[in-house]
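[SOLVED] Predicted holo structure with zinc ion

Edit: marking solved, answer below. Original request kept for reference. I posted the sequence and ligand SMILES and asked for the 3D complex as structure tokens.
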Amino acid sequence: MPGAGCVVRGAVLGAGFAVLGAGFAVIGAWCEASPAEAGAAREGWVLGADGIEITARSRAMQPGELVVLNITLPQHADRVTVRAFDRDAVTFADNDRQWRALVGIDLDVKAGTYPITVDAGGLHASYDLAVAPHRFPTRRLTVDQVFVTPPASEEARIARDAKLLADTWTSPSPRRLWTDHFVRPVPGAANSAFGSRSIFNGKARTPHGGADFMSPSGTPIHAPNAGRVVLARNLYYSGNTVVIDHGLGLFSMLAHLSAIDVHEGDRVDADQIVGKVGATGRVTGAHLHWAIRAGGARVDPLAVLALLGD
Ligand SMILES: [Zn+2]
């Protein structure tokens, strides 16, 4: 729900899509749900068209952030589709007329304005998402040279790993498996180097797509939320890796484990232990790397904790 002092509601409902002009019918304002606080969730009202009301919450409208849309329909719909960045957002019903969508702004999205469209059983609304630029820092790391220039003998394996992960992200469970709150997989603060442009041994590599938790080797790792283990094996770069399918396009990847305590196909509950912190794969030392995919977008797990944590 919107924060106090953020009242834009009601003014234009019923005006209809056409009346609101060409392009996307969006009226609204962003405002602080609470006094400014680093990482606090922001909340704003957006009035959709066709009597659909949409509110949005996020830490910021920037690459790597998650945007939670609350969608209130004027009537029941069996199905709601939300599209953004040419992808289907993670969309689910809270009750008959109340839906939510999780829109991930991938860390490589350029600053600009992007339409989000909502289709609900013949009703339509659109929302213009203005993505602000974000300059990610660069980090320079020194790792074993085999993880910077892998030997030719590992090329086939690396290609197999990449395909396996790509196929995983595109075949989510069609049902929501996660429960209300995401939890921190290990205690302690994260060194959120999310999005950092990474230079390994002087060579530029793909940006950092997760948050790193500096926990000692052997620390138990808890499932950030419920789901099905769809991958539990050793991969070249991420070492011992567990991927949990939370359903509807939401995934957690936990990497560099010293031990894996689950099997592919297992159902896990939120907070269940899935393995232990380690230093396998391309690392400078023991830590947990937690990455999240939301509808295909790489988003900061700390954004997910801020918006969907307890
Ligand atoms: Zn990492």
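OP edit: The two ends are 16 Å apart (CA to CA). Thanks to everyone who chimed in.
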